[in-house]
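cron nightly-structures :: item 1 of 1
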Amino acid sequence: MAPCRSQLIRSSALRLFSLLLTTTRLISASHHALTLILRQPQRLLLHIGHSALFAWPILTLIGIALGISVVHQLHYQFGNAIDTTLKWLAYLMLFELAPLFSSLLLLARNGVACANQFAPYQLNSDNEIKLASLIGVRQLAYALSGCGLAIYLAVASLIAGIVYAKPRYLLTEWQQLLGQLPLSLWLSLPCKTVVFCSVITWCCCLAGLFSSRRRHASLATSRAVFSSLTVIFLFDGLWAVFWPLNA
C-alpha cells in the first residue's frame, strides 16, 4: 500500500510540475501576440466587440440595481447623511463591486467560450507559440473590455444611487464628492480589473488546453469556471491586504 501511495504522489507531483512548466512557457511566449495584433488587428477588435458591446444592456441593469440597493442599505447605517452614503457607494463600486462584477460577467460570457474553443487543440512544441499568441490577444482584448465595463458599471451605479438618494444633486456637489476620493481608489479600479480579466483569460484557455491533453474536453467548462473563481477571489483577498481601502 505504501509504495502505491508514494508512486501516486510522485506521479501527481510530476504532472503538476509539467503543467506549471507548460503554463510558464505559454505565458513567456504570449508577447508574440503583439506581432499577431499588428498583422491582424481585426482579431483584437473582434474580441473586444464580442466581450463588451453586447454586455452594455445587462450591465446597465446591474449598475442601476447595485446603486439603488447599496444606497438603500447604507441609508439604515448613516440615516440622512447623504454625502457619507454616496461616498461609501463610490468606495464600494470603485474598489470592489465594479471590478468584480465586470470580471464575472466576462467569465460568464466569454471565459466559458474560450475553454470550449481551446479544448480541441493538441498542445505541442509546433503550435505552442501560435496558441500563446491567441491567448495573448484575448488577454489584451478582455483587459481593455473589462476596464471599459467596470468604469461604465461604476458610473451607472453612482448615477442611480445619487438619483435615488438625492434627485437634485448639484454639479458642484458632484465635483466635491469626486474630489474627496483618493487617487489610489481611482487607480485600483483599472488595475484590479486588468488582473481579474487576465486571470480569467489564462485560466479558461489553459483549462481547455489541459482538458484536451487529458482527453476530458467535456470538463473544460467546469474547470475553467472553478479555477477562475478560485484565483479571482484569492487575488481579491490579497488585494485587500496589500492595497487596503482607506476610507
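cron nightly-structures :: done
The chain is about 85% helix and 0% strand.
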